[in-house]
Amino acid sequence: MGDVSIYKILSAIYERAERQSVLEGLEPAMWRALEAAIKIHSHGLTITVDGLDYLQGGEPASLDFCKRLKAIVASHRTMKCILLFRLDDKPCPVEARQFVLDSTYNSDDVRYFVEDSVSSSKEFMNLKEQDKQTIVQKVSRLSAGTFLSADLMLQLLKGEKTLSGILQALETLPKALPDLIQKLSSVVNFKNPDTSLILSSLLVAERPLTLLELKSLVEMDIGSCSHSERFTSIEDDIHNSCGPLVTIRDGVVRFSHHSIKEHLLHLASSGKLPWSIKDAHQRLATRCLAYVKVSLEDWSPEPVFECGWDSIQGKSLADLTKEHHLLEYSTRYWVAHFRKSHMYESKGKYTCTSEFKACFPKSSLLALIEGRWWEVQTSANDAMEMHLLALELRKSILGEKHKSVVQCYINLGRIRRELSDHIKASECYFDAWTISQHISGEKSTVIMACAKAYSEIITRTIVTTHTEFTSRTVQIYKYIWTSHKHTHGAAHEETIKYATYLATLYIQLKELEKAATVYREIHKTCVEKYGHLHELTITITRSLTTVLQRLSKHEE
Description:
mainly alpha, Serine Threonine Protein Phosphatase 5, Tetratricopeptide repeat, two-stranded parallel sheet, 9 strands, about 65% helix
């Protein structure tokens, strides 16, 4: 903590990730940062890594991780490393001293856990003490020192309504963890609409969902794309539909254990559930957008060039997310779920369902919030891909001449400038400028902002031939010049600057007559405003003279 040298290394890696379009090489850079940190603070240092078996990439990734970590530890004699994971009869990925936890080490702890659970659970409250002890002894023995097995056994017993049912269930409790999870799943009706929606959403969600987010999700009526309030308790709805598979803690809904999530993922992937993983993503993407459509239907502000946010209609972004509980999740992740659904085939290819189109929000505010959040929640390259897909979907569903499309082009242009893709950034600003002129009033500030952003990029580019690119630039320079003449006056510094840009571009294109026409107008204005001997007048006179000489118009 507080080491400036380590901070500088990590800061450089972060900035590199923001700039570059590919992320290859960043992991080795992170390992080098770790080595640098350890070199400074290795004395007496112990690193503990838990959950190695859940590392993304599976066994190969775990093996590579262990080898890298062992190489670092081996180079520092006073340093230690502890790895915690389940081997499941597999060999240890690296040569190390192994300490296997079996039932003899934590059997007492498991028993205390079972005793506490039985004594504090309302389901067992009316049982006699002798019956409670029977449950404690049986579960403690069958669980073989495994907390998860003990907890799952208790969850199964809680589903029984009578003492005889509990005692009978005790005799048939599975011992193996996979069998326990299977039996636990068998008591749930996956065809029940609430069960299907809640479990499928939790299964594919990018992060755990809160109670209020799930409540918002289940209250959406997709058929009419409207909000249908429930009068039942969301906690009761979750408990009744999902049983022991999920748990609610501190207002957050999660699977009771990662193993249960893995089991359901396996069932869904192998076609043993009424819905597939892609079905789940499609349903969640559609419901998220339906929620946004209903929540923001009265919000359609003009496109904004900067992604900053003060307030709109007197409300801040924090006010909006506090009022609309699912707005933040929906905005951040709807694209991720769309990509993993049946609708998305490959990059640039997708087929939207009629239901998805009907639920797609028209509010330009969603695109504005996307521009604010996407650029900080992921790398610039990933954000660019998200904005690209969001843009294509909006053009396809809402049509090209729409405020949301303009905002998407602005978002995309800003990201591409960050990635130093200046030509494509200029194309985004040009498209935003073009559409804005059709849908926004003449006084709209975003039209001029897009034109100037385009100009800032193009003024660094040397042009020698006619292309679509140069045609666009001529249009932009003409627009800014004409606009500034009306707003600032013909002799204003900014007006003359953009007129000069236009004349210079005509010279580069060898369109000397047009360049001369522009210079004549500027020259006349400067003479009238400043006189013949002013520095600016002299500069414009020289430029005009040079062009006239090239046109052989010596008499002028």
